[in-house]
From TrEMBL:
<dbReference type="GO" id="GO:0032357">
    <property type="term" value="F:oxidized purine DNA binding"/>
</dbReference>
<keyword id="KW-0234">DNA repair</keyword>
<keyword id="KW-0326">Glycosidase</keyword>
<dbReference type="InterPro" id="IPR004035">
    <property type="entry name" value="Endouclease-III_FeS-bd_BS"/>
</dbReference>
<dbReference type="InterPro" id="IPR023170">
    <property type="entry name" value="HhH_base_excis_C"/>
</dbReference>
<dbReference type="InterPro" id="IPR004036">
    <property type="entry name" value="Endonuclease-III-like_CS2"/>
</dbReference>
<comment type="function">
    <text>Adenine glycosylase active on G-A mispairs. MutY also corrects error-prone DNA synthesis past GO lesions which are due to the oxidatively damaged form of guanine: 7,8-dihydro-8-oxoguanine (8-oxo-dGTP).</text>
</comment>
<dbReference type="InterPro" id="IPR000445">
    <property type="entry name" value="HhH_motif"/>
</dbReference>
<comment type="similarity">
    <text>Belongs to the Nth/MutY family.</text>
</comment>
<dbReference type="Pfam" id="PF14815">
    <property type="entry name" value="NUDIX_4"/>
</dbReference>
<dbReference type="GO" id="GO:0006298">
    <property type="term" value="P:mismatch repair"/>
</dbReference>
<dbReference type="GO" id="GO:0046872">
    <property type="term" value="F:metal ion binding"/>
</dbReference>
<dbReference type="InterPro" id="IPR005760">
    <property type="entry name" value="A/G_AdeGlyc_MutY"/>
</dbReference>
<keyword id="KW-0004">4Fe-4S</keyword>
<keyword id="KW-0378">Hydrolase</keyword>
<keyword id="KW-0479">Metal-binding</keyword>
<dbReference type="InterPro" id="IPR015797">
    <property type="entry name" value="NUDIX_hydrolase-like_dom_sf"/>
</dbReference>
Amino acid sequence: MTFSDGNPDPTRQVLAWYDRHHRDLPWRVSPAMAARGIRPDPYRVWLSEVMLQQTTVQAVKDYFARFTAKWPTVTDLARAETEEVMKAWAGLGYYARARNLKKCAETVAFEHGGRFPETEEGLKALPGIGDYTAAAIAAIAFQRQAAVLDGNVERVISRLHAVDAPLPGSKPLMRQLVAAMTPADRPGDFAQAMMDLGATICTPKRPACALCPVNASCKALAEHDPERFPVKAAKKDRPVRLGAAFVAVDEQDAVFLRKRPGHGLLGGMTEVPGTDWTARRDGATGPEAAPFAASWESCGTVGHVFTHFELRLTVYRSRVGRAATDGTGWWEPRDTLHDQALPTVMRKAIGLALPDVFAPVAPAAARAASR
DNA sequence: AACTCGTGGGA
DNA sequence: TTCCCAAGAGT
């Protein structure tokens, strides 16, 4: 089949490329299996899609394996303790995803009889499932002709059509362009093909256009500057915030931990006591800011980069009796410390205070941050 | 519509 | 070193 301009149908070119060059991923049903009518488990599709939100395939693989081993079905996950889910998610980031994951599992298990809705609209009504994830599950798990638009597809589409309008404003246009390409017969394979193409060929820098199945149709390549796309709005600067963290250790090497509020930054995760993180350079980051009196000893500073600010956290350590602490937390034995729902920044802080508990994380970055 | 929300890896 | 960014969602 050819179009009037003489180029092959880009949709079929993309699918044919996917048949040969698709990535093998733990949550994926290969195109050969899909052709034989094998359908992926909607639970595994959903879990992988949520984990992959703004997160690399490499980072997701281990977490996906642990989650599916521990909770093989959505009902298993729905019955789990929320704290156990937060512990299993610790280190993956964007912790609202874990809270919504649990809520979504409960809704599916207890209000939908353990089955996921099969339409985009039904899926999007669930917590943690937005435009992209709803379309991806509908297409991949339920063979619905849904237009799947993620960062990879945005790059491929914006280059194919040389979309000059900047993201995110150009998203509706791009969704329309994807919808026009999405086939009725293999919508799930097509979505995954476009994402694989964006991840392996149509890359942000130095795309391998010579290997691209749709290079003959690509307007950006014809203009000799594919890297110009997608055009994006200017990003804001990342301010620095300062704070202090206090690692209290008792006679048995247990560490005093607290639970953060269930919403906002690192919501629902575990922490060591500390100050607020403020932009003020004259803010209290010394031992006088500690939640309880002790002979606090400075351990140095850890740096940590969040999405919209950079943190420099001064870390203090003290050996204290259990009676010295307030009632806002608990004492966690050092043997079970690494199983807690501690986000990476807290592991860095504890690692600086107690190098034999957590290996110091990213020492180079920590040194840079302390300057 | 513009902010908030993590982390690690690659160039 | 610094920057970018990776299968985005919620508010």
